[in-house]
Automatic annotation (TrEMBL):
<dbReference type="Pfam" id="PF01321">
    <property type="entry name" value="Creatinase_N"/>
</dbReference>
<dbReference type="GO" id="GO:0005737">
    <property type="term" value="C:cytoplasm"/>
</dbReference>
<feature type="domain" description="Creatinase N-terminal">
    <location>
        <begin position="9"/>
        <end position="141"/>
    </location>
</feature>
<dbReference type="InterPro" id="IPR000994">
    <property type="entry name" value="Pept_M24"/>
</dbReference>
<dbReference type="Pfam" id="PF16189">
    <property type="entry name" value="Creatinase_N_2"/>
</dbReference>
<dbReference type="InterPro" id="IPR033740">
    <property type="entry name" value="Pept_M24B"/>
</dbReference>
<feature type="domain" description="Peptidase M24">
    <location>
        <begin position="312"/>
        <end position="531"/>
    </location>
</feature>
<keyword id="KW-0479">Metal-binding</keyword>
<dbReference type="InterPro" id="IPR000587">
    <property type="entry name" value="Creatinase_N"/>
</dbReference>
<dbReference type="Pfam" id="PF16188">
    <property type="entry name" value="Peptidase_M24_C"/>
</dbReference>
<comment type="similarity">
    <text>Belongs to the peptidase M24B family.</text>
</comment>
<dbReference type="InterPro" id="IPR029149">
    <property type="entry name" value="Creatin/AminoP/Spt16_N"/>
</dbReference>
<dbReference type="GO" id="GO:0046872">
    <property type="term" value="F:metal ion binding"/>
</dbReference>
<protein>
    <submittedName>
        <fullName>M24 family metallopeptidase</fullName>
    </submittedName>
</protein>
<dbReference type="GO" id="GO:0070006">
    <property type="term" value="F:metalloaminopeptidase activity"/>
</dbReference>
<dbReference type="InterPro" id="IPR032416">
    <property type="entry name" value="Peptidase_M24_C"/>
</dbReference>
<dbReference type="InterPro" id="IPR050422">
    <property type="entry name" value="X-Pro_aminopeptidase_P"/>
</dbReference>
Amino acid sequence: MLMLTHEARLSALREELKKRGLDGFVVPISDEHMSEYIGSYAQRLAWLTGFGGSVGSAVVLEHKAAMFVDGRYTVQVRDQVDGNLYDYCQIPKESIGAWIAANAGSGARIGYDPWLHTRGWADNVSQALAKIGAELVPVDANPVDAVWEDRPAPSDAAVMVHDDSNAGQSSAEKRELVADWLKSEGLDGAVIGALDSIAWLLNIRGSDVDRTPVTLSYVLAHADGTAELFIAPEKITPEVARHLGNAVTIRPRTEFESALQHLRDKKIAVDPGSGVAAIFQTLEDAGATVVAARDPALLPKAVKNPVEQQGHRDAQARDGVAVSKFLHWLTKTAPAGGVTELDAAAKLREFREQTGMLKDLSFDTISAAGPHAALPHYRVDEDSNIPIAPGSVYLVDSGGQYVDGTTDITRTVWIEPVEPSAEVKDRYTRVLKGHIAIALAVFPENTAGSQLDAFARQFLWQAGVDYAHGTGHGVGSFLAVHEGPQRIAKSGGGQAGTDEPLQAGMFLSNEPGYYKAGEFGIRIENLVLVEPREIPGAEGTYFGFETLTFVPIDRSMVDVGLLTREEIAWWNDYHAQVGKILLPQLTAPADAEVRAWVEEGCRPL
């Protein structure tokens, strides 16, 4: 009999913990690869609590439980998770270790699944529990799985070859890069657990995880350029086997742990960010020397080759038409009322599908009307869905997965016929000024993203306001829409990647914003490419950004009086380029209205 309520599920988990002699258990949003987006089989936290965000954890004790989320989900967690069952805790202000130490007794045994947490996390929580004489205990099997009666099975979808014509580099060349690094470090091999790194290294893609074209697997890369791929055998087609060739040994995924146990006396690199605690422990127990080191595929994956760069431009040109068709539809339809957030998200997907090349969305569309636009990571569903009201702000953050590129774009538009307020125009224009400042930035070699972050915030700071998210994230090539190691964000606070030097070939988003709780939110996002910048007389190497996203930016909220001549020139140059890229694709008679809308949107300020 299936347990339908979250209260019943919580009770069942507590009974299971008693059977196992555990006084508590930690349930994260995570899989065995520390992925951002996870398959349905790994959605344990959503099943247990109802929480639908992408980051969070629950702690379940015998008589008390708590939900831990960051500031992005302060409102959402209260809407989705029963406050009678769980305390609400905000990280990093409140830590899981400190909460358990304050609420569990001396001698308590708190379970955790070592395949779902990093070694660093386990060490930190263990230290907090040791202060009260409690213990963090690794479990052999996840107790949530024991009570989740209708838990989905992991995807059995077949692997797909990512052709060299799109990858721009063969798998053999990529494996040789990793092998060279291993030899230079005196290492025998590296465990690669991040699914997008595996996909990049082997030039394969999959459909095991919504929004990210990866396949569930592990790789053990060796210093001679060979590799072992641990994957469910039924996922490998003859075409994929031929593509991988003799240098890649295909082994069942179930043999991964035992393979680690046979690495005695080997020096093996494991990334502490994507390698789970169980991998470290298994290797150490086997007598291997474990070296904590960054995933050797991470940086090469982030620096896109010329083929990937051109593929992305092609994908953006295609995607830009789809988004422009959507925005034309929205501005024509929404002022009459009756269009909901879900209607808009579905219509945008429909336009992308009309390209005939969409493989998936790159993330769940943020279709946010009015006060929902003030939630940076809002995700609409049947319960939260509201109409897009005339005389209000509408924010849409969306993207597509295409074989030649991954897109991510945000546009904020004003729904007529009422005019936007002076406050809305002021905030929108300050966000725009920050966006332009990043687009025009010129910076020397070895500049980190954190050093550019204030460029985007300065105009908001002048008005005494700010935004709580980063300004830019890395983007994959038909891979993860959020990709490291580079970021543009404030330094400190545990923000990984903020100190990573930006290199030519890296993709980043440029997305400053402003959010007034309960009223409206604004974000303007394009993707950019780090490129060399020639400066006469320059002393050293300098970089700037090539803008990659071309869709008209809403002008109805722009206060032109706040813009400098340079900013107006950027706007006009940008929109001239929008016209050059989009209008040649809008020549069919059926596109006449969209073409006119684009031409109007591209008029000089």
